[in-house]
């Protein structure tokens, strides 16, 4: 949560290098919609969807709705290019930004500034770090100001390579703040290659096992914090984070695991149904989409079952190449669905049934009624079914009425899709379903009243 900035000390860990704040643009962007590209006759550019308060972008005067054309003479055509540029920037480096605002070309100049520190009036904010493969990962931990040991939550986000510094007043930020205000220690772990991290692999190039290991290191550290009761540690995994969570709970003693919008089945099986469901809701003709599905099935079989490289699949058939480009944003190389292709293949290899069966902690499986990604409640109910089969009474299913995959309140599936296409962060911030805070808080309190499982 990006609030007022004041005197937040960065945590020092004995015998370790202290991570410093990196230069950061503090800018959120999306690909340029075709309608804007046609209107302004542009072949490149990115749409600014928001800036962080007191950030470099904020100081430069970049506004939501601006079309970024170039930074330091580098044209921008994809969000990943801005990500790579941001990673290479240094504190104090000169900036020359060209953009389009309401049809008028504008030039902005300034210098790269450090990411501002966060502050909460209700919690102590600790900037820490955890060792990882010879490097350091940034952690941010929100702790109650009251003395003593407290229950804790490790927050595990979805698959995008998004820095924990970007949460701000988003749904993630509001959820974390809500837990913090209710007396929980909440830890965030930066994914490798992002934010203040040093000597860690690029997030866009790591596989799933590497990401799981990063969150596992954070979990181990969280359980050792002085303010944390190690017998009252919980996980919350959103989307792909809900796949990582059972891989950790399978190995570590925990009090509880919460997952939202997370599949239970192998990814090949799950994603096939997701694609079949989504396109007609988004306006694609049913018959035309069925023809696409026939080709898509072959692509996914080759990718997930035969574990072929995307380039190998693309070379086999022009129709496969078209599917890879349109459905998976593959333009050649290792990038597939905005991550390294091995990330997705390893998801399909996981035995989630075994992981949930071997989870001794209590489990809260949460499904949003209008989740466009998890198209029905089957996966979440199956998680509960498996948990209760092996550990009777430990699994609980929770449906969140009128809520989409992004934890946002919407009036229906079609309305949620339309809102998603608008990429309106203001709407998302103002429509976060705060019932998720109260429901998870109530469940945690019920679990804590029960005798901890023996180990």
| Weakly predicted, low-confidence segments | 1-16
Distance between the termini: 36 Å
Shape: globular
Class computed from helices, strands and strand pairing: alpha/beta
Main sheet summary = 8 strands, mixed
In percent, how helical is the residue content? 25-40%
Average predicted local confidence, pLDDT: 92
What is the CA-based Rg, rounded?
22 Å
Characteristics of this structure?
16 helices; 455 residues; eight-stranded mixed beta sheet; disordered N terminus; globular; single chain; alpha/beta; six-stranded antiparallel beta sheet
In short:
The chain has 455 residues and is α/β, with parallel strands linked by helices. Helices cover 37% and strands 22% of the residues. Helix 7 runs antiparallel to helix 8 (286-305), helix 8 crosses helix 10 (318-328) and helix 9 crosses helix 10 (318-328).
Question: Topology of this protein?
Answer:
Layout: E1 27-31, H1 34-40, E2 46-51, H2 56-60, E3 67-71, E4 74-75, H3 79-88, E5 94-101, E6 104-111, E7 123-132, E8 135-144, E9 150-156, H4 171-181, E10 185-189, H5 208-223, E11 228-238, H6 241-249, E12 256-260, H7 267-281, H8 286-305, H9 310-316, H10 318-328, E13 335-336, E14 339-340, H11 341-349, H12 352-357, E15 362-368, H13 378-390, E16 395-400, H14 413-422, H15 425-430, H16 435-448
Parallel strand pairs: 9-10, 9-11, 11-12, 12-15, 15-16
Antiparallel strand pairs: 1-2, 2-3, 3-4, 3-5, 5-6, 7-8, 8-10, 13-14
Q: How would you describe this protein?
A:
- The protein is globular, with a radius of gyration of 22 Å.
- The longest helix has 20 residues, at 286-305.
- The strands form 3 sheets. The chain has an 8-stranded mixed β-sheet, sandwiched between helices. Strands 1, 2, 3, 4, 5 and 6 form a 6-stranded antiparallel β-sheet that branches. It has a two-stranded antiparallel ribbon with strand order 13-14.
- The two termini are 36 Å apart.
- The chain is of the alpha/beta class and 455 residues long.
- Helix 7 (267-281) packs antiparallel against helix 8, helix 8 (286-305) packs across helix 10 (318-328) and helix 9 packs across helix 10 (318-328).
- The protein contains 16 helices and 16 strands.
């Amino acid at each position: 949560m990006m609030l007022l900035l004041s005197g937040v000390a960065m945590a020092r860990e004995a015998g370790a290098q202290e991570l410093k704040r990196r230069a950061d643009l503090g800018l959120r962007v999306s690909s340029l919609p075709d309608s804007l590209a046609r209107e302004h006759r542009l072949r490149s550019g990115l749409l600014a969807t928001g800036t962080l308060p007191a950030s470099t972008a904020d100081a430069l005067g970049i506004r939501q709705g601006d079309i970024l054309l170039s930074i330091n003479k580098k044209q921008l055509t994809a969000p990943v290019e801005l990500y790579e540029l941001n990673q290479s920037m240094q504190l104090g480096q000169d900036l020359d930004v060209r953009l389009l605002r309401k049809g008028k070309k504008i030039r902005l100049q300034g210098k790269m500034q450090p990411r501002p520190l966060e502050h909460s009036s209700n919690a102590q904010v600790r900037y820490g770090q955890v060792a990882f493969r010879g490097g350091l990962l940034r952690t941010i931990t929100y702790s109650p100001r009251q003395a003593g040991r407290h229950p804790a939550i490790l927050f595990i986000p979805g698959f995008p390579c998004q820095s924990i510094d970007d949460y701000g007043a988003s749904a993630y930020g509001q959820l974390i703040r809500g837990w913090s205000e209710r007396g929980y220690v909440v830890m965030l772990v930066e994914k490798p290659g992002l934010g203040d991290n040093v000597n860690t692999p690029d997030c866009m190039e790591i596989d799933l096992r590497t990401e799981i290991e990063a969150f596992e290191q954070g979990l181990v550290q969280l359980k050792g914090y002085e303010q944390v009761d190690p017998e009252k540690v919980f996980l919350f995994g959103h989307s792909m984070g809900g796949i990582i969570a059972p891989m950790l709970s399978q190995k570590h003693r925990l009090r509880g695991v919460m997952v939202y919008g997370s599949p239970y089945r192998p990814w090949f099986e799950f994603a096939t149904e997701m694609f079949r469901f989504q396109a007609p809701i988004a306006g694609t003709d049913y018959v035309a989409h069925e023809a696409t599905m026939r080709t898509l099935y072959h692509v996914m079989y080759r990718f997930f079952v035969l574990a072929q490289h995307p380039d190998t699949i693309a070379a086999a058939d022009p129709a496969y190449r078209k599917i890879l480009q349109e459905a998976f944003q593959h333009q050649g190389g290792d990038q597939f669905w905005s991550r390294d292709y091995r990330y997705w293949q390893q998801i399909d290899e996981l035995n989630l049934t075994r992981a949930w069966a071997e989870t001794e902690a209590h489990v809260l499986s949460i499904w949003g009624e209008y989740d466009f990604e998890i198209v029905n409640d089957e996966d979440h109910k199956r998680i509960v079914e498996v948990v209760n089969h092996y550990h009777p009474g430990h699994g609980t299913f929770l449906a969140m009425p009128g809520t989409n995959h992004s934890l946002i309140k919407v009036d229906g599936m079609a309305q949620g899709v339309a809102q998603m296409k608008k990429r309106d962060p203001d709407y998302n911030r103002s429509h976060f379903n705060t019932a998720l805070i109260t429901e998870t808080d109530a469940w945690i309190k019920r679990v804590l009243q029960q005798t901890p499982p023996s180990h």
